[in-house]
Amino acid sequence: MKNITSYQGKNILVLGLGKSGYETAKLLHVLGANVTVNDGKDVSLTNEAKELEALEIKVVSGHHPIELLGDIDLIVKNPGIPYHIPFIQEAIARNIQIITEVELAYEINEGKIIGITGTNGKTTVTSLIGDMFKHSNQTGLLCGNIGFVASLVAQNAKSEDTLITELSSFQLMGIRHFKPHIALITNIYSAHLDYHGTQDEYVSAKLNIVKNQTAEDYLIFNYKQKELLNNFEIESQIIYFSTEEKVNGSYIVDGKIYFQNEFIIDVDEVVLPGKHNLENILSSIAAAKLSDIPNESIIATLKSFEGIKHRLQFVMTHENVKYFNDSKATNTLATTFALDAFHSPIHWLCGGLDRGNGFEDLDEHVSNVKHMYIFGQTTEKLKAFAESHHIPYSICDDVKDAVLQTKGNTVAGDTVLLSPACASWDQYPTYEVRGEDFIQHVKLLQ
């Protein structure tokens, strides 16, 4: 990693002792900072807190005392902590700069960065690009929102390596110098309004990914949403992807995929299912080609990559009923893709955290839904949705209860689909835990 000195002797507060907070505190300690860690939950007895205290890093937990801000030069904030909490508002009032951990990853990284963001598809795209690198002679290291702490990965990366970094809007709000050589935005739809407040703020957070790019860098963008770029100054070279027309970038003509007039592969040879995944594939191809990944490596991925866990993941067939785990569908757009993927009668498991949005986006996508199994904070909204569409429904305690209730309702040829259209945090710590709960109880049906 780069030997940077800008943090030596600085008083830095790491806010949130999750995986990224833990690694951030250790990194800043190595870089010579005076580090304090603060978490609103009581983490005093955790192994992480004890290990940090052994390094003489102060850990304050259980609340956010304002006096911690007294001599702080910088806050490195967990992305999930909203800016509207009083502690952060007081820090802003005191003009204390707030960044997220991906900024540190950029500052110490020796090689190039591909940054991937978007409302839907970013984990699939990050994984696709990583697989294309894996089939080549280049090293691509997955990190960021995909589950590997970016600053930890960057510490071990070499100058010839590429960080393939999945980025959330929450992370991108906390950057100052962060600059990916290739920025990729899969799409931007309505999401996270409970955090950002307005759609304009959400779009601005996503477009932060390009704010430091120069003419030597690239932005890969969805052509059907190009108007979103009109309000932003883009210095980088824009490469589009489109499933509908020929563009400067990746596109499909007569069932064949091209990148800038170069034939890559027939659509029929691609393994990854779903029409929505064609956009993910096209954007991934663009990133790979701009990174000088050879065609044979790209093709090898597209002929073998079947998808990621919790995204339209086939679980099993029981009594001729197929079960699919789409727990990663944390918004309505992702669920439309899932509902449209099946022609069989669907038993739809849905619900979760209420972020204030409605479900009218799903109106045109429920013709195959035979029964709804509703759980979580959005129960009343989804109950009203079911009634307005004359869909039978069951009110369930949680995913486990929903799975159990499907057993008496399904017949051979049906599909059981967990695609919640909501975040998991009202009942589960992550969508992965929610998906594993589904998988576990589906397998118990045998």
UniProtKB/TrEMBL annotation:
<feature type="binding site">
    <location>
        <begin position="118"/>
        <end position="124"/>
    </location>
    <ligand>
        <name>ATP</name>
    </ligand>
</feature>
<keyword id="KW-0133">Cell shape</keyword>
<keyword id="KW-0436">Ligase</keyword>
<comment type="pathway">
    <text>Cell wall biogenesis; peptidoglycan biosynthesis.</text>
</comment>
<dbReference type="InterPro" id="IPR004101">
    <property type="entry name" value="Mur_ligase_C"/>
</dbReference>
<dbReference type="Pfam" id="PF08245">
    <property type="entry name" value="Mur_ligase_M"/>
</dbReference>
<dbReference type="InterPro" id="IPR013221">
    <property type="entry name" value="Mur_ligase_cen"/>
</dbReference>
<feature type="domain" description="Mur ligase C-terminal">
    <location>
        <begin position="310"/>
        <end position="422"/>
    </location>
</feature>
<dbReference type="Pfam" id="PF21799">
    <property type="entry name" value="MurD-like_N"/>
</dbReference>
<feature type="domain" description="Mur ligase central">
    <location>
        <begin position="116"/>
        <end position="288"/>
    </location>
</feature>
<dbReference type="GO" id="GO:0005524">
    <property type="term" value="F:ATP binding"/>
</dbReference>
<keyword id="KW-0132">Cell division</keyword>
<dbReference type="GO" id="GO:0071555">
    <property type="term" value="P:cell wall organization"/>
</dbReference>
<dbReference type="GO" id="GO:0008360">
    <property type="term" value="P:regulation of cell shape"/>
</dbReference>
<protein>
    <recommendedName>
        <fullName>UDP-N-acetylmuramoylalanine--D-glutamate ligase</fullName>
        <ecNumber>6.3.2.9</ecNumber>
    </recommendedName>
</protein>
<dbReference type="InterPro" id="IPR005762">
    <property type="entry name" value="MurD"/>
</dbReference>
<dbReference type="Pfam" id="PF02875">
    <property type="entry name" value="Mur_ligase_C"/>
</dbReference>
<keyword id="KW-0131">Cell cycle</keyword>
<keyword id="KW-0961">Cell wall biogenesis/degradation</keyword>
<keyword id="KW-0573">Peptidoglycan synthesis</keyword>
<dbReference type="InterPro" id="IPR036615">
    <property type="entry name" value="Mur_ligase_C_dom_sf"/>
</dbReference>
<dbReference type="InterPro" id="IPR036565">
    <property type="entry name" value="Mur-like_cat_sf"/>
</dbReference>
<dbReference type="GO" id="GO:0009252">
    <property type="term" value="P:peptidoglycan biosynthetic process"/>
</dbReference>
<dbReference type="GO" id="GO:0008764">
    <property type="term" value="F:UDP-N-acetylmuramoylalanine-D-glutamate ligase activity"/>
</dbReference>
<comment type="function">
    <text>Cell wall formation. Catalyzes the addition of glutamate to the nucleotide precursor UDP-N-acetylmuramoyl-L-alanine (UMA).</text>
</comment>
<keyword id="KW-0067">ATP-binding</keyword>
<comment type="similarity">
    <text>Belongs to the MurCDEF family.</text>
</comment>
<keyword id="KW-0963">Cytoplasm</keyword>
<keyword id="KW-0547">Nucleotide-binding</keyword>
<dbReference type="GO" id="GO:0005737">
    <property type="term" value="C:cytoplasm"/>
</dbReference>
<dbReference type="GO" id="GO:0051301">
    <property type="term" value="P:cell division"/>
</dbReference>
